[in-house]
Write a structure and sequence with these properties.
4 helices; 0% strand; 198 residues; mainly alpha
């Protein structure tokens, strides 16, 4: 009977030793996925900078007659700056090293960040797009004033279709990709948490 107990203890010790590399693999996968998400946020911030510079150059070097044009430019700038600041905030929160936390705490932090990003993508993304769209349309009022009404309407329709496509097609794909990555992280952390509890 003692041999059986010794054999059982050796088997349990062997199982624990095999479990540890799996835990390290899970943490590595979580870290890699989290880094992909953070890099995507940083890339989005870098993409906003040229747009902001172009809008500032237009505002500074082109003289407009109508005050509505400047209101449109200000709306565009404000939307870019606020959206960019929010992305930077999300980037810094996501790029923190949470691997020193207990798996259950790490899971709570990631789930909380996921909820914040989902709300931001739903509300903030649409609000950003709406303000950017209104600003662009106000800007186009004076820019297209020198063309025929047919071309004005064509410009407004093309701009509207483009914004609708970006909001309802492209952004949905980006949000779905981000949500999938967060869900992968959460699944991995749940697996790690269960592994350490047993």
């Amino acid at each position: 009977m003692q041999d059986f107990e010794a054999l059982k203890k050796m088997w349990q010790l062997n199982q624990e030793q095999q479990a540890m590399p799996e835990a390290n693999d899970i943490l590595l996968q979580v870290s890699n996925t989290k880094n992909v998400l953070a890099k995507n946020l940083l890339k989005a911030v870098w993409q906003l900078i040229p747009a902001m510079v172009i809008v500032i150059l237009i505002a500074v070097f082109i003289k407009f007659v109508n005050i509505i044009t400047y209101v449109g430019i200000i709306l565009v700038l404000v939307s870019i700056v606020v959206y960019g600041a929010a992305l930077i905030w999300h980037y810094f929160n996501l790029s923190k090293d949470y691997s020193t936390l207990k798996p259950a705490d790490y899971l709570k932090v990631i789930q909380h960040q996921y909820e914040i990003r989902k709300k931001f993508n739903q509300i903030g993304g649409y609000l950003y797009s709406l303000i950017l769209y209104i600003g662009s349309m106000l800007y186009l009022v004076e820019v297209t004033a020198h063309v025929t009404p047919l071309w004005q309407w064509f410009g407004f329709i093309i701009t509207t279709v483009w914004f609708l496509y970006v909001v309802f097609v492209l952004s949905k794909k980006v949000i779905a990709y981000e949500n999938q990555k967060f869900e992968d992280i959460i699944t991995q952390l749940k697996k790690l948490n269960q592994q350490l509890e047993t």
